[in-house]
């Protein structure tokens, strides 16, 4: 995760993954954050998957409304320029419920790649806690902030904590 002010958080996490998710790259930008997630896989014991290559971070002429909130929705307080493969406006809400926290909700609006939209709706339950993600995407208008996402992915909560299941790209 890279913030527009230059602060960076890069993290590599290893875990088992469904084969259909291997090779998926996810891109998202909101308020002052820009994130890149790469899921590279290998299929033998103790193997090391290939390192990802960083992609273009140039603006692509699209903009989306942007905001963050600790609730189920947020009101856009500006717009953000989309970069590279970010071709959708997204509203993503992540809800964590667990033994140490009754409930943590995080919502953001911004730009995303199609892959974030298609993988953004899921729920996981593990050892007394649950995480649920809901993402809604729309097409942005070229050069305007008119794209909007409707009602509410681990992307939002993980990005908020710089805890993403891959490597996050620095802003170029």
From TrEMBL:
Q: Quote the subcellular location field of this record.
A: Secreted
Gene from which this protein is expressed: LOC116412430
Question: Which InterPro entries does the entry mention?
Answer: CNF-like_PLA2_Inhibitor, Snake_toxin-like_sf
What GO CC terms are in its UniProt record?
Answer: extracellular region
**Name of the protein described by the UniProt record:** Phospholipase A2 inhibitor and Ly6/PLAUR domain-containing protein-like
What domain of life does the native source organism fall in? Answer: Eukaryota
Q: Specify the species.
A: Xenopus tropicalis (Western clawed frog)
Q: What is its main location?
A: secreted
What transmembrane ranges does the database entry give? none
- Keyword Secreted in the entry? The reply is yes
> What CDD domains does UniProt report for this protein, alphabetically?
TFP_LU_ECD_PINLYP_rpt2
| Gene Ontology MF, one | phospholipase A2 inhibitor activity
* Signal peptide, first to last residue: none
């Amino acid at each position: 995760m890279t913030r527009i002010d230059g602060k960076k958080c890069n993290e590599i996490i290893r875990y088992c993954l469904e084969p259909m998710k291997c090779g998926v790259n996810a891109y998202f930008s909101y308020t002052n954050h820009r994130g890149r997630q790469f899921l590279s896989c290998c299929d033998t014991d103790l193997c090391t998957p290939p390192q990802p290559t960083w992609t273009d971070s140039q603006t692509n002429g699209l903009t989306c409304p942007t905001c963050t909130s600790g609730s189920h929705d947020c009101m856009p307080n500006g717009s953000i320029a989309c970069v590279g493969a970010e071709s959708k406006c997204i509203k993503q809400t992540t809800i964590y419920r667990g033994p140490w926290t009754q409930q943590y909700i995080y919502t953001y609006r911004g730009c995303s790649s199609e892959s974030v939209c298609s993988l953004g709706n899921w729920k996981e339950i593990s050892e007394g806690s649950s995480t649920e993600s809901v993402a809604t995407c729309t097409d942005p208008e070229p050069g305007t902030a008119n794209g909007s996402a409707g009602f509410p992915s681990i992307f939002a909560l993980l990005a908020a904590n710089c805890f993403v299941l891959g490597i996050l790209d620095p802003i170029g």
